[in-house]
Amino acid sequence: MAEDNNQQGTQEQPQLQFSLQRIYVKDISFEAPNSPRVFQQPFKPKVGLDLDTTSESVGEDLYEVVVKVTAQVSNNEDDATAFLVEVEQAGLFRISGLDGAQLDHTLGAFCPNVLFPYARECIDSLVGRGSFPPLMLAPVNFEAMYAQKQQRAAQASDTTQ
To answer: Which family does it belong to (predicted)?
Structure first.
């Protein structure tokens, strides 16, 4: 009888499940608009980096998360763009047993942490194929990015009320 009560107790609680189904490149771009001229002068790079994450439900308990990284590198000698690289690294995640704020946090912070190393490697490979020095991106604190995004959303809702 005690076993029946335990089984009912576990059935009432939603069981947390998290699994990575697939990691893939959704979009990729590399441009070196000023080559070969950029290779004929001293290279003093200035890096501009833009990072964003998105997520959407694509099925029952299935979510696509995308980390978009854009790096524009110019040469300080003449401020001309040396190269522009953009990668949208995506993943399919099966998540159940989470809802509301927990699910939002998982999709906005945890999943991007899983995907970012793949985006870094992809960017480094593209930059190397363009014959430029490696662009080793520093790790990103997606927890802090998520918190900032939540804070901006809260401030925006406060101003509309």
So the answer is: Belongs to the SecB family.
Contact 130, 81 (CB under 8 A): no
Q: Tell me, what amino acid is at 77?
A: E
- Cross-strand bridge partners of residue 73: 47, 83
Across the strands, what pairs with 71? 49, 85
Q: Residue 92 in 3-state DSSP?
A: strand
Domain 15-133 adopts which CATH fold? Answer: Bacterial Protein-export protein SecB (3.10.420)
Radius of gyration of the chain (CA): 21
Domain edges within the chain: 15-133
Q: Which residues pair with 28 in a beta bridge?
A: 87
- Encode the chain (161 residues) as per-residue pLDDT tens digits: 555 555 554 455 668 899 999 999 999 999 999 999 989 888 889 999 999 999 999 999 999 999 999 999 998 777 889 999 999 999 999 999 998 899 999 999 999 999 999 999 999 999 999 999 988 899 999 999 999 988 988 888 777 66
